[in-house]
Design brief:
Elements: E1 4-8, E2 11-12, H1 17-31, E3 35-40, E4 42-43, E5 51-54, H2 61-70, E6 75-78, H3 83-88, E7 96-100, H4 112-126, E8 132-135, H5 138-143, E9 150-151, H6 167-170, E10 177-182, H7 195-207, E11 218-224, H8 228-235, E12 240-243, H9 247-256, E13 259-262, H10 271-278, E14 282-285
Parallel strand pairs: 1-3, 1-6, 2-4, 3-5, 6-7, 7-8, 8-9, 10-11, 10-13, 11-12, 13-14
Length: 289
């Protein structure tokens, strides 16, 4: 196997699960002696041990081919659109793979027709040209319509080990039950991340609080990347917002919750749920992909 690998992903930015996967795959492969590079449109990763190649969205297929040649003809592994489509066209010269994290069901979005066309195009014209396809779950294998995909489950090795919660951390006898979620707060995410569902839950529980005149029975929190305007939509509902937190702040936040709720209606791998449970916090999510 070649020890020269080039990953392709739209963005290497905090708050994106695929970026977490690519970052930690790259670090581990680098540790194992591989030469690793990541091609993306934007990044906020600071001083990674692997190479990041920022490219414009207007780059041509020929320019990507030349980049691959300059980097020593690596194995090309595409994690997201449009790179899965692009890389499939380079299989005449390079060993090319897709690492499928899946895409949310098109009907969640206003541009559902265009999104469905992208999905069908990959099924009909791209997958068959690749050396192979890695998928992150059995659900994704089924969702993309490629039964031959090799499942490699995501883990939570990137989470710090803070041990079992102590009794003082779980005793809410004299304080409200802390309930929270973790998700990107932008308008586009709201189509499937369950923003409205979470605010409805918060409103419902707050209305049922039996101790309104003294101390609330419940406190609701959300952490995620977004703008001040995004945050205000939650704050108006009485939800405390932790905006654009760092990784260390995220682990503290998840640890300090009593209950983590994921209201997302589609996940190839529900990474925030896994991260919360890794911090010793009870996790609740819908029984859906």
């Amino acid at each position: 196997m070649s020890k020269n690998i080039l990953f392709f992903v739209q963005r290497m930015k905090q708050g994106f699960g695929v970026a977490v996967v690519v970052d930690h795959l790259s670090r581990e492969l680098k540790h194992l002696g591989c030469e690793v590079g990541v091609v993306c449109f934007e990044s906020d990763i600071v001083d990674p041990p692997y190479s990041i190649h920022l490219i414009p969205s207007t780059i041509s297929l020929g320019e990507i081919r030349e980049l691959g040649r300059r980097l020593g003809n690596p194995i090309l592994i595409a994690h997201t659109a449009p790179f899965i489509e692009w890389v499939s066209e380079l299989s005449d010269e390079f060993e090319c793979w897709a690492y499928e994290h899946g895409e949310p069901t098109p009907t969640f979005f206003p541009d559902a027709v265009a999104r469905e066309a992208v999905k069908v195009n990959k099924q009909l014209n791209c997958y068959s040209k690749l050396k192979g396809i890695i998928v992150i779950s059995e659900f994704i294998k089924k969702d993309i319509g490629f039964p031959g995909g090799k499942v490699i489950y995501n883990g939570c090795d990137h989470a710090p080990n803070r041990g079992k919660k102590q009794k003082v951390e779980t005793d809410f006898t004299n304080r409200p039950l802390r309930v929270g979620t973790l998700m990107r707060l932008g308008e586009g995410e709201a189509f499937y991340k369950g923003n409205q569902i979470f605010t409805d839950i918060a409103a419902s529980f707050s209305a049922k609080s039996s101790n309104a005149d003294a101390q609330k029975d419940f406190e609701f929190f959300v952490m995620g990347s977004g703008t001040l305007a995004d945050a205000q939509l939650f704050q108006k509902k009485g939800i405390e917002v932790h905006l654009n937190g760092s990784d260390s702040e995220k682990w503290d936040y998840l640890r300090n919750l009593d209950v983590f709720i994921s209201c997302s209606q589609w996940e190839g791998c529900n990474l925030p749920l896994i991260e919360a449970e890794a911090m010793g916090t009870l996790g609740i999510a819908f029984a859906i992909g």
